[in-house]
Design goal:
This protein is mainly β and 301 residues long. The protein is built from one helix and 25 strands. A hairpin with a 7-residue loop joins β4 and β5. The radius of gyration is 24 Å and the shape is globular.
Length: 301
């Protein structure tokens, strides 16, 4: 009988370990409060496959992981369904949220407006200084307006001439990416990212945006450059991509619920990026009353 005790103990220990791995590892939230983010993803499932946990879902969404239900929750950037994670003895919680939401629509349909500000100065890059856009030969224009003395100053040309681009100011520098090279949405496009340093009055080239597109818009939020939407010869883009300056790297985020272009009137307020209006079809005659918003807080690559 004594020889059976170790076997019984081993059996109990193995069972306990298995239960710990399952109970401690598998916890999944199927919905998220609208105060944090709207849950737009489709049916979600979680299962054990050998030594791995497999999470599947449909629709748009961002995978998150946390050591407890109370958080903190961390995005697993670029996670795709099915998502696999090795089983461990440690406790982990998973959920799929959507960072997109909607608010009251615009009174009138609108699109195409925007500006970038740095230290009290308004930088106008390429087509953004013109209502009709920076079509050649104005695609390389680069100037700064000083609000203190109400004067404009011409600066070194934008190295890669373009129009319908995205621009923002981060850490004392101006970031310019994407756009199209000629007139019209059927024009050739670019994904080049160029950065202007007012301290040296020089341009440098950084990592190119993953998705080449024109008719785009972007905004700075928490030290990141977020670029969304756009249009090209094949239609309207729903891509949302984020550039991290200190890593010189782009990340792909959740796609826009409704693809748009020309949303130059975006704003970053209390953790949300607001995207009012925008065109839903190629060309300049499809302005909308949309008001899409994107939750930025918690994105820590």
């Amino acid at each position: 009988m004594r020889t059976m005790q170790p076997r019984a103990a081993n059996k109990i220990s193995a069972t306990t370990r298995a239960l710990r791995r399952l109970a401690g590892m598998i916890a999944f939230l199927l919905s998220v409060s609208s105060a944090v983010a709207q849950n737009l993803h489709g049916p979600t499932a979680i299962r054990k496959n050998g030594d791995n946990l497999v999470v599947t879902w449909t629709g748009t969404g961002t995978m998150q992981v946390s050591p407890s239900l109370a958080g903190p929750w961390q995005d697993i950037l670029e996670a795709r369904s099915p998502f696999g994670a090795p089983l461990t003895d440690g406790q982990k919680f998973f959920r799929v949220i959507s960072r997109w939401n909607k608010r009251a629509k615009l009174i009138e349909a609108n699109s195409e407006m925007g500006v970038a500000e740095l230290n009290g100065k308004v930088y106008v890059i390429g087509e953004l200084i013109y209502v009709a856009g920076g079509r050649p030969p104005r695609g390389s224009d680069f100037a700064v307006y000083n609000a203190a003395n109400n004067t404009w100053q011409t600066l070194p040309n934008l190295p890669s001439q373009r129009n319908h681009l995205a621009a923002c100011a981060i850490g004392g520098k101006i970031y310019v990416t994407g756009g199209r090279l000629q007139a019209g949405f059927t024009s050739a496009m670019t994904s080049i990212l160029e950065v202007f340093d007012p301290a040296t009055s020089q341009w440098t080239t950084r990592a190119a945006m993953p998705t080449m597109r024109g008719g785009i818009n972007g905004i700075a939020a928490n030290g990141r450059f977020l670029v969304f939407g756009g249009e090209g010869p094949n239609g309207v883009f729903d891509e949302m991509e984020m550039y991290v300056p200190e890593q010189d790297r782009w990340y792909q985020l959740e796609s826009l619920p409704i693809a748009v272009h020309g949303v130059t009137g975006s704003a970053f307020v209390n953790g949300w990026i607001h995207l009012p209006g925008g065109g839903t079809a190629t060309g300049g005659s499809s302005g909308s009353t949309l008001h899409q918003i994107f939750w930025v807080e918690g994105i820590n690559p």
